[in-house]
Amino acid sequence: MEASQKEASTNITLFKKSDFSFIEDFNHIIELMLNGNNPDAVGKSVAQLEEKFENAKHIIESLPGLQYTKEEQESILAEELKVLDRKKSQLKSYKQTQAIDQ
Q1: How would you label 34-58 residue by residue, b for 16+ Cβ within 10 Å and e otherwise?
Q2: d(Cα 89, Cα 86) in Å, to the nearest integer?
Q3: Distance CA 99, CA 51 (A)
Q4: Cβ neighbours of residue 42 under 8 Å, at least 6 residues apart?
Q5: I want to staple 72 with a disulfide (CB 3.0 to 4.6 A). Which of 17, 58, 68, 100 is the partner?
Q6: Reported pTM
């Protein structure tokens, strides 16, 4: 495994589903605009929505593997599955060996 692959696999990005949910924010802005009584609240809500978009963009950009094409990701997955199978086989073989008494 390349160093960049190891680095990517250890930098796991955690996020919440709500980080990508924008409908409620849009609805809130529309309600404020329809009421028309507080333009400052509309501006504040739009700014918060823009901040949420930037946060979502940052999360997406930090996801591991984005530097690889789909084909490269599939190739890496196939190689890692081979390694997993080999290690499972080694573990099974190890479990079947008898302990040497001294």
Answers
A1: eeeeeeeebeebeeeeeebeeeeee
A2: 5
A3: 61
A4: 29, 32, 33
A5: 68
A6: 0.56
Question: Which is nearest to 13 in space by CA: 49, 66, 73, 78?
Answer: 66
Q: Read out DSSP for 51-74?
A: HHHHHHHHHHHTSTTTTS-HHHHH
Rg of the chain, C-alpha, whole Å: 25
In this structure, what DSSP letter does residue 97 have?
Answer: S
Q: Residue 12: is its pLDDT beyond 90?
A: no
Cα three-residue angle 65-56-12, rounded to 5 degrees: 40
Q: What is the pLDDT of residue 97?
A: 83
Whether 80 shows a pLDDT value over 70: the answer reads yes
